[in-house]
Amino acid sequence: MLNLFAQEGHYMRKMIIILTLLVTAVSCAAPTCEESTVDYRAAVDSINEEWDDAIAIANSTARMSLAGPLGELQSIAREARQIEPPECAQDAHVAWVSYQEFTIGAFLAFMGQEDDAVVSAAFADAEEQQEKWVSEYLIINGVQIPEE
């Protein structure tokens, strides 16, 4: 009987060691994308707030007066391109920069008095890029996107 308790004690020590190793391994696991993009997302949120303000101004500006607001959008886009995203945020970053470039291109087409169909298509392309960016950005924020 004493031998049985000794064996159980030995078994318990092994289990404690195994559990300790598992807890240590889990706690040392690589951070999630959401965790590793905290600083990146803070920078994006700040720049994106400026972008949204500049878009609101550009949307309410007459065609012949768009040079100033468009210059501001281009400046913000240059600032956005300078951010170095973490590895897991690469897709989101590319989508964000593409959205900005498509939007600037659409405003340039409008300013240049391109045909209405060309301008409409350019803004539709920009909106499509914006949707891609929002989806990618939600993913790095830990939001699960339902499959369509």
Describe the protein's architecture and organization.
The protein is mainly alpha-helical and 148 residues long. 77% of the residues lie in helices and 0% in strands. The longest helix is centred in the first third of the chain and has 26 residues, at 2-27. The radius of gyration is 26 Å and the shape is elongated.
Write the layout of secondary structure elements.
Elements (H helix, E strand, L loop, with lengths): L1 H26 L5 H4 L1 H22 L7 H15 L8 H22 L4 H25 L8
Helix pairs in contact: 3-4, 4-5, 5-6
Descriptors:
148 residues; mainly alpha
Helix/strand structural class: mainly alpha
Q: Could you tell me the strand content as a percent range?
A: under 5%
What's the total number of strands?
0
Largest sheet: none
Mean pLDDT comes to 86
C-alpha Rg (nearest Å): 26 Å
Order of helices and strands: HHHHHH
Helix content: over 70%
Number of helices: 6
List low-confidence stretches: none
